[in-house]
Amino acid sequence: MENISSEKDNGKRIAVESMFDAIAGRYDFLNHFLSLGIDRLWRKKAVRIIGKTLTPSTILDVATGTGDLAIAALKLGPVKITGIDISEKMLEIGREKIRRKGLNDKIELLSGDSENILFADNSYDAGMVAFGVRNFSDPLKGLSEMRRVIKKGGMIMVLEFSRPIVFPFRQVYNFYFLNILPFFGRLVSKDKKAYRYLPESVMKFPDNEAFLDLLRKAGFENVKQQKLTGGVASIYTGIKIAGNN
To answer: How far is CA 5 from each of CA 1, 12, 136, rounded to the nearest angstrom?
Structure first.
């Protein structure tokens, strides 16, 4: 059973890497276009929430993509932000973006797997991930790995889509995600699989209280959720309490 599970996880990793490589050139445009620009506001809010808890010197941005969250997090004044992602095409675009902004001394983007993070225990003050956990082959393993490399007393911040439960947000959200988003995503990206995968992955993802439970299972404490835009997205946070292994 363990081998079957491992093969399945590896299969998803390869599929996700291939998918994001394929849409990398249009990813930023589609992100902003399909969210009507609200994704930028969500990232700014997520960064502010980190800043209310601590002033991190070092930050790890997992599933960094093209580096938008890493760039937004510079407002916290860190010495260094390290971003990792499995998609080399996404990283190439992110590195060019960072180079144009003159931020090479502040942000480094590296190829890396969320479920096998190649950094030592207790390396970072904070770990963050935006719209990436649902792409992990094993979300619990990925979150546990993030906890391992976060210093004691540090925090995790996860920005992710969540499903609204209140009328009319739920109905509008379901219609948009299942109909409008896939249509325009396919039209612009020319990739049918990618924008069919997005709504499917969101609908299957353990959100709200289920995700808070996942953070607890990964070893985080003081877990919290802040809903955004009627619950369309959520910011989840947790603390690695000093004294825990």
So the answer is: 6, 11, 14
